[in-house]
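Sequence design from tokenized structure. All designs in this work follow the same two-part layout: the structure record, then the generated sequence. An example of the structure record is given first.
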């Protein structure tokens, strides 16, 4: 049940980011697309993120974990290649969008626990 709530909240956060134009380079046309993006982000975070973290472990250690934000941004940008209608204009937009999604997920985890 918590997984479904997280997927819906991330989809709503994506819609909020685009509707209120918080990040000008990100566009999601409707809730269905945002829901698909949320599912794709979840799958990417399950399968690709651990591998990317292991491969970039030396860089991550040198930057004291801040390189994780870059990995999150790249996965967010990578998701835009899989979903039609979801557009991310560049790395900066992906970085800010991923950062906002991480903040929303963190707040949600605080409320669910």
């Amino acid at each position: 049940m918590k997984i479904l709530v997280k997927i819906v909240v991330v989809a709503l956060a994506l819609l909020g980011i685009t509707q209120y134009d918080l990040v000008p380079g990100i566009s999601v046309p409707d809730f269905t697309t945002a829901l698909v993006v949320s599912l794709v982000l979840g799958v990417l975070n399950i399968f690709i993120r651990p591998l990317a973290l292991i491969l970039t472990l030396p860089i991550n250690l040198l930057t004291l974990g801040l390189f994780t934000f870059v990995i999150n941004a790249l996965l967010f940008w990578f998701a835009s290649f899989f979903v039609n209608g979801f557009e991310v204009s560049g790395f900066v937009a992906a970085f800010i969008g991923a950062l906002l999604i991480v903040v929303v997920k963190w707040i949600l985890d605080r409320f669910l626990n």
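The chain has one domain: 2-112. We note this feature because it recurs in several other targets discussed in the main text.
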